[in-house]
Amino acid sequence: MKIYIDKNKCHGSGECLKVCPHGALQIIDGKAVVSHDRCDLDGLCIPACPHDAINIVEDA
Length: 60
Ligand code: SF4
What we know:
This protein is α+β, with helices and mostly antiparallel strands. It has helices at 15-19, 45-48, and strands spanning 2-5, 25-28, 31-34, 54-57. The protein has 2 helices and 4 strands; from the N terminus they run E-H-E-E-H-E. The longest helix has 5 residues, at 15-19. Iron/sulfur cluster (SF4) binds next to loops.
């Protein structure tokens, strides 16, 4: 499992950065990017996104 950020939905508002306890999210070129090595999949960022851009998905 991993966090997936839909770049088409992400507005780069940074709301997810505020709730991540592990500093796993950054805004790069106006879009949220997750560092999977820091993410513990707690899912806190999912409801924090006002644009429903973050989901947990199966690893490809
Ligand atoms: S799932 Fe949790 S640890 Fe992972 S990026 Fe979202 S808030 Fe951070």
